Structures are given as C-alpha cells and as structure tokens.
Amino acid sequence: DLCPGRYNGPQIAAKFLEQYYPENERPNVRLIDIAAGTGRVGRELLDLGFHKIDALEPSDGMLQIAKQQQLYQEYYLESIGTTKTSISDDVYDCLVISGGMGEGHIPTKALNEMIRIVKPVVFFLPGGLICIVMREEYLTVVSEYAGKLENYMHDLQEQQLWEQISRTIIPNYSFQKNGVVFMYKVLPTN
Q1: Could you list the pLDDT tens digit for every one of the 190 residues in the chain?
Q2: Are 22 and 85 in contact (CB under 8 A)?
Q3: Whole-model pTM?
Q4: Partners of 103 in the beta sheet?
Q5: Which residues of 170-186 are buried (b: 16+ CB within 10 A; e: fewer)?
Q6: Structural domains present in the chain
Q7: How many other C-beta atoms are found inside a 10 Å radius of the C-beta of residue 23?
Q8: Fewer Cβ atoms within 10 Å of its own Cβ: the N or the C terminal residue of the chain?
C-alpha cells in the first residue's frame, strides 16, 4: 500500500518545496505534478498554500480520482518520456515528481522534457525548480537508471541546461527504504 507512513514521498516532496517558496509567494507559484497518480502530492501542496497546480498522469483511472477531489487546475492524461508532451515551453515555475521514477516508469531521457516545460531561473524571481523524489536503491537496481540517471543529470548540467541545488538522502522514504531528493534549477538558454 502507498498509504502515509509506509510511503512518505508526497510529504517529503511538499516539505522540500515549502523550503524554497515563502508562504506569501506560494499561491502564485505555477507547479506541475508529474505522474500525479490520485493526487497525494497535490493534496500536500494545497495544504501548504500552493494553489496553481496541474497534474500529468498516464492512468485515466488515477486521474479521475484526482479530478473528483478537485486538487488540480489542469489535468493532462499523458506520460512524460522521450517525445514532447502537449504542454508549451517554459510554462511552470516548478515541477515535482514523487513516485514516478521506477522500473518501467519515467525514462531517463524524460529529463529533457521536464526542463523544456519549466521556466528558467531569472535573477531573483522564484521559479525554475525541478524536484525529483525517488527510492535511492532505484539508482542501482532499476535498469533504466543504474549507472545512467545520475550520469545523464550530470551531462545536462555540463550542457548548462540545469544546475543541481541539492541531492539529499531521506531515511524511511518508502517501505523503510531510503529515498533521494534531487533539486535542480533550470538555467536560461543562450
């Protein structure tokens, strides 16, 4: 079961974003919850004062549950991968993923699409954040990520598409296993 206490990803994701956005700015931050599922991350973000949240989810059944709860403004019934989504460039101040990274889930190359739909950081304005919350062991046991995901993250940084803010290990993230939270800021292109 992905109930709170056994799977803490949504709370962890929300707490990390809470640190980056002062309370008075949260109502105006435009976010997208990737692999939104039934909306647990959305609920946590709403409780912290974020209001402009959209959902992208490939499962119609899960997205319908999120719609019934009226957690999001826009609902995208699609997946994120190696092809473009229906979302325009530079739309979001922040993108969050919790629970979407795993075997057979979001591919490594989807990071490019995430960067494309997030606004770059501009001077002191809030925005340009990508928060990826996942089980730490997936970095070594998931074939799509083992020896690839962090290398690709580094390659994107070398290309000056984004910059790592932090990489934090979280004890008891999911089913008493450690998690890892990657925070990146999207950089302006020249």
Answers
A1: 344 456 789 999 999 999 999 999 999 999 999 999 999 999 999 999 999 999 999 999 999 999 999 999 999 999 999 999 999 999 999 999 999 999 999 999 999 999 999 999 876 666 799 999 999 999 999 999 999 999 999 999 999 999 999 999 999 888 788 999 999 999 998 6
A2: no
A3: 0.94
A4: none
A5: beebbeeeebbbbbbbb
A6: 8-186 (3.40.50.150)
A7: 9
A8: C
Q: Which two tokens stand for residue 160?
A: 């000056």
